[in-house]
Amino acid sequence: MWVKPVVLQGRYVRLEPLTAAHAPLWAKHHEPELFAYMSRGAPQAGDVAGYEEYIEYLNDEPGRMNWAIRVGEDFAGRISYVGITEAHRKLEIGTFIVRPYQGTFVNPESKYLMLRHAIEDLGAIRVQFTVDVRNERSQRAMEKLGAVREGVLRKAAITPDGHIRDSVVYSITDDDWPRVKAGLEARLGYELESR
Fold it and tell me: What angle do CA 166, 172, 176 make, to 5 degrees?
């Protein structure tokens, strides 16, 4: 696969390949309502075993690579590349942030690390984000990130609870990246030293 499971280190967060070892940390933050807009549903149970199964399910999906978002020793969420298509040099980023870290530096720095890795290291020319049209908070986050809203895909997916979902599509291309990168570095108040 074009994408390899590497560790991405920022000033505030560390992204490490998601494994069953992260299950106890994620289960500690279990809140079923946080999965309401997730296209892949939620763990069957909110205990460690439920999260182990959920992580295995995510990691077994073809064309997907998952990372745990860590702040110190704590688990702050999960971020993934999905729809990885090397032939067209494109992929999508999906994110799940646990409640204590929502609205903090976690989302912008995690996205910064993933975008930088995709565009600068892997040579991606397009990074896409797909947001449930009902999730206004995520739409605002995409716009603050600097992603371009491309439109709404009507009846794009059926969620695990049976809801027929419309999805808002955003993207950042390699042409957009210098502007987005500068904005994120200013927002985070830093430039990463050498990688």
Answer: 145
